[in-house]
């Protein structure tokens, strides 16, 4: 967070939290979301908050690495929310950019199945990539910049991390083509 940024709790309940970091000079709003997105998650409150900021904001960044689960009701709510948010900028006939600065494993798995979750013109910067140690079976994720992955799923360049527990080489722990399906429709 820059010195000119404000950190504002937008929504907090026992299972879902949203904090907005607003950088007015840079015209950037970063939303950090954590917890479970379900029928109780107040995404309407979040979009209402964004509509109030709309004249000042040019870039909306989502940090979704903290999302722990999304049920079917949450999927529906999220798609309605992202469609509403996409309409903030065009309403004023100006440039408005939506950027996913970080997608956690849970959110990315759902987004690969339900491509509408990323909106019409998604820009994704970083994702969590799951790995498992062949020796001790420890599982962890590595955050990767999407621009470093390669031009397409067939040209993927994945790191080869060592296990933090035993030091052995770790292996990618998902279906390669399925986990990176989102690459087909994003801008980087």
What does this entry look like structurally?
By secondary structure, the chain is α/β, with parallel strands linked by helices. It has one domain (5-185): 2-Layer Sandwich (Transcription Regulator spoIIAA), CATH 3.30.750.24. It has five helices and nine strands. Helix 1 (43-53) links the parallel strand 3 and strand 4.
Quick take:
The chain is an alpha/beta fold. It is built from 5 helices and 9 strands, in the order E-E-E-H-E-H-H-E-H-E-E-E-E-H.
Main sheet summary: 6 strands, mixed
Low-confidence stretches: none
- CATH uppermost class: Alpha Beta
Number of helices: 5
Average pLDDT rating: 84
Looking at CATH, the homologous superfamily is STAS domain
* Count of distinct structural domains: 1
At the fold tier of CATH, the topology name is Transcription Regulator spoIIAA
Computed over alpha carbons, the radius of gyration is: 17 Å
Q: So, CATH architecture?
A: 2-Layer Sandwich
SSE-based structural type:
alpha/beta
Q: Roughly how much helix do the residues carry, as a percent range?
A: 10-25%
- Globally, the shape reads globular
- Distance from N terminus to C terminus (CA atoms, Å) equals 23 Å
């Amino acid at each position: 967070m820059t010195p000119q940024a404000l950190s504002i709790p937008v929504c907090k309940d026992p299972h879902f939290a949203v904090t907005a970091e607003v950088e007015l000079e840079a015209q950037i709003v970063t939303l950090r979301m954590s917890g479970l997105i379900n029928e109780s998650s107040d995404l309407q409150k979040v979009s209402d908050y964004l509509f109030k900021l709309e004249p000042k904001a040019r870039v909306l960044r989502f940090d979704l690495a903290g999302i722990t689960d999304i049920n079917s009701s949450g999927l529906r709510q999220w798609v309605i929310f992202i469609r509403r948010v996409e309409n903030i900028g065009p309403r004023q006939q100006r440039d408005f950019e939506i950027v996913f600065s970080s997608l956690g494993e849970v959110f990315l798995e759902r987004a690969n199945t339900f491509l509408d979750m990323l909106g019409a013109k998604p820009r994704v910067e970083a994702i969590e990539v799951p790995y498992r140690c062949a020796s001790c079976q420890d599982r962890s994720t590595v955050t990767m910049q999407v621009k470093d992955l390669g031009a397409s799923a067939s040209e993927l360049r994945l790191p080869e991390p060592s296990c933090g527990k035993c030091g052995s080489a770790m292996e990618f722990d998902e279906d390669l083509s399925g986990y990176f399906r989102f690459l087909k429709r994003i801008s980087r």
